[in-house]
Design a protein that fits this description.
- This protein is of the alpha/beta class and 424 residues long.
- The protein contains 14 helices and 17 strands.
- Helix 1 crosses helix 12 and helix 13 packs antiparallel against helix 14.
- The strands form two sheets. Strands 7, 8, 9, 10, 11, 12, 13, 14, 15, 16 and 17 form an eleven-stranded mixed sheet that branches. A six-stranded parallel sheet has the order 3-2-1-4-5-6, with helices on both faces.
- It is 36% helix and 26% strand.
- The chain binds NADP nicotinamide-adenine-dinucleotide phosphate and L-homoserine.
- NADP nicotinamide-adenine-dinucleotide phosphate (NAP) binds next to helix 1.
């Protein structure tokens, strides 16, 4: 068979690892793909940049028309990131009849409907395994292996950078900034790391996973997204005392009332299956009927794991296998507002160190039907920290209680609120 002509759009962390995999394992990959894989063009931003991979200079270009107009290029592999110019390059590539492989979750979350629709119209492959979970083959699992299931829940740790940061803050006591620099040096973080730290990267991935799992496109604006910037070592310390580990969780549930989708820092009991998922590792828990419960685990970021996902997509294109129909959102479902969700909460206040304060705050919780699970008041001083963990309560009721407590004279401030999930 004719070789598969590949254009790599981007030669950074992921692009370099894809290049290495295809060139060093060419013979084996060709056997598995049923035809040889040939890199014909590599699009970069700066042709003069020194690179960690040794690439023949004639392959490099800064001109996208050398990809679009080259009849020998069958598939465009987009590992540039961001929206502009990636969206334009993919649109033009699809219109030129090229198959698409992308690792770009932001692009898929924001322009997936248009691009997948266009790919279906043009009859080209559009694969995106690397957009969620790094090296974990979760997208094909949801789209293909679990196609017979009604999926009711997808929940997990789906950002390597923040999981690395939270692990290193808890284990080594280093700051968020130090841990982020390390994650950047290891190639885990996005070009703009606020996408990781502020939770957007997880929001994009949850949109992709939830849309496939529930067969209905989620709306990014309706996903509640909170990042880890407000997490302090004090909260991690209280968490330890309470027997909790802190994780940035993505949670999507298909309920009779609609879809619930949220991303937020979460305390989970140390015995929880996700509590031991550390460093760059990701894990995704899936609940479906008839399959029951499933757990996927692996490296969620970094060049090599991501190259594994990208190359498997390229092999699907070479074999003309995998789901040719790109868009799997066949239904329309209601997405629930955050106020209706039910959760337990950890809340840390700074309060006056005097008798009766605990009672006043507990009474305000009681007036708003917020039942308390535990309380920690240690040390002396002005102000003194006071920590509560509630039982399950509707978000709206909890927020009302907090507003009332904030106005008490004995309360300096609400230092932090973190949701608690006891069950998977
Ligand atoms: P990166 O290291 O920043 O690499 C980006 C590459 O794109 C560079 O080679 C850059 O060229 C090129 N580029 C940037 N702007 C361009 C433009 N206007 N025209 C042509 N080329 C341009 O990024 P990365 O970490 O590899 O991530 C790439 C994508 O994979 C992103 O969508 C990211 O979300 C996704 N992803 C990353 C990981 C990970 O662990 N890093 C994991 C899964 C998915 P120069 O080299 O000339 O600057
Ligand atoms: N920045 C992302 C992460 C890359 O840390 O998970 C993988 O998608």
């Amino acid at each position: 068979m004719k070789p598969l002509g590949i254009a790599l759009l981007g030669l950074g962390t992921v692009g370099s690892a894809v290049y290495n995999t295809i060139t060093t394992q060419n013979t084996e990959l060709a056997k598995r793909a049923g035809r040889s894989l040939e890199i014909r063009r590599i699009l970069v931003k700066d042709i003069t940049k020194s690179r960690t991979v040794n690439v023949p200079s004639h392959l490099l270009t800064t001109d996208i028309s050398q990809v679009i107009d080259d009849p020998e290029v069958d598939v465009a592999v987009e590992v540039i990131g961001g929206i502009i110019p990636a969206v334009e390059y993919l649109r033009d590539s699809i219109l030129a009849g090229k198959h698409i492989v992308t690792a770009n979750k932001e692009l898929l979350a924001k322009h997936g409907k248009e691009l997948l629709g266009l790919a279906d119209k043009q009859g080209v492959h559009f694969h995106f395994e690397a957009t969620a979970g790094g090296g974990i083959p979760i997208i094909k699992a949801l789209k293909e292996s679990l196609a017979a299931n009604e999926i009711s829940k997808v929940m997990g740790i789906i950002n390597g950078t923040t999981n690395y940061i939270l692990t290193e803050m808890a284990v080594r006591g280093i700051s968020l900034e130090e841990a982020l620099s390390e994650a950047q040096a290891k190639g885990y973080a996005e070009a703009d790391p606020s996408s990781d730290v502020d939770g957007y990267d997880v929001g994009y991935k949850l949109l992709i996973l939830g849309s496939i799992a529930f067969g209905a496109r989620l709306d990014l604006d309706k996903i509640n997204i909170e990042g880890i910037r407000r997490i302090s070592s004090i909260d991690l310390e209280y968490g330890r005392k309470l027997g909790y580990t802190l994780k940035l969780l993505a949670i999507a549930k298909d309920t009779p009332k609609g879809i619930e989708a949220r991303v937020h820092p979460t305390f989970i009991p140390n015995r929880h299956p996700l509590a031991s998922v550390s460093g760059v590792f990701n894990a995704v828990y899936v609940e479906g009927d008839p399959v029951g419960e499933l757990m996927f685990y692996g490296r969620g970021a970094g060049g090599s794991p991501t190259a594994s996902a990208v190359c498997s997509d390229i092999i699907d294109v070479a074999r003309d296998s995998g789901t040719k129909r790109a868009c799997s959102c066949l239904n329309v479902k209601n997405q629930l507002p955050m106020e209706t969700t039910i959760s337990k909460y950890y809340v840390r206040f700074s309060v006056l160190d005097q008798p009766g304060v605990l009672g006043q705050i507990a009474a305000a919780f009681g007036r708003n039907n917020v039942s308390l699970h535990s309380v920690i008041q240690q040390g002396r001083g002005e102000p003194v920290p006071l920590v509560f963990v509630t039982h399950e309560v509707k978000e709206a009721g909890f927020c009302q209680a907090i507003e009332e407590i904030k106005s008490l004279d004995c309360v300096f401030q609400v230092d932090n609120v973190i949701r608690v999930e006891e069950e998977v």
